[in-house]
Design goal:
The protein is α/β, with parallel strands linked by helices and about 170 residues long. The protein has one domain: Rossmann fold (3-Layer(aba) Sandwich), CATH 3.40.50.170. Helix content is about 30%, strand content about 25%. It has a 7-stranded mixed β-sheet. It starts with a strand and ends with a helix. The model has no long low-confidence stretch (mean pLDDT about 100). The structure holds glycinamide ribonucleotide.
């Protein structure tokens, strides 16, 4: 598959998609980001992957670009905006979210689980539809919440799980 990735932040999941052996048979052909200081840009440059900043409101521009690049699957990897018209995009879109959906949708999901006193949280890869973090769930990974965990340590543990399940989902879809 020809993969398109959308990012807003550091881009560690993006880099993991590029380097993970489970994704070797696929090609990341385009990374779109929506923020001025986006760590994913450096990673795209390092791997020679075309990249472009498009403000989140300009979805028609994104759709055109994904069509030009003939993308088969779009992955939201830390893209922190809700897509208004996901059904207009030219291919399926998946998202990785740091909670066991349907629990803790939206922003600050790690903090929400921690503050709720959960003993287990995790991450979810799901299809994107019009509903916030509401599309069909494809795969989840559980992460225990340890007594000493804070937001940082728990975020790291969840991201380690994301680095395993997101490539596994991509592998299963292609
Ligand atoms: C990931 O942990 C992902 O679950 C989260 O952003 C992080 C991005 O990290 N996404 C969301 O919270 C979406 N609602 P990364 O840029 O280092 O891959």
């Amino acid at each position: 598959m020809r993969l398109g990735v959308m990012c807003s932040g550091n881009g560690t999941n993006f880099e993991n998609i590029i380097t993970n052996p489970l994704c070797r048979k696929h090609e990341v052909v385009l990374m779109i980001h929506n923020t001025k200081k986006c760590g994913a840009v450096k990673r795209a440059a390092k791997f020679g992957i075309p990249h472009c900043r498009i403000p989140h409101k300009n979805e028609d521009e994104m759709i055109q670009l994904f069509k030009v690049f003939q993308v088969d699957l779009i992955i939201l990897a830390g893209y922190m905006r809700v897509l208004q018209n996901p059904s207009k995009f030219p291919c399926p879109i998946i998202n990785v979210h740091p909670s066991l959906l349907p629990k803790y949708k939206g922003l600050h999901a790690v903090e929400q689980a921690l503050n709720a006193g959960e003993s287990v949280t995790g991450c979810t890869v799901h299809y994107v539809n019009e509903e916030l973090d509401g599309g069909e769930i494809i795969m989840q990974g559980e992460v225990p919440i340890l007594p000493d965990d804070d937001i940082q340590s728990l975020t790291k543990a969840i991201q380690r799980k994301e680095y395993a399940i997101l490539p596994a989902v991509i592998d299963s879809l292609g």
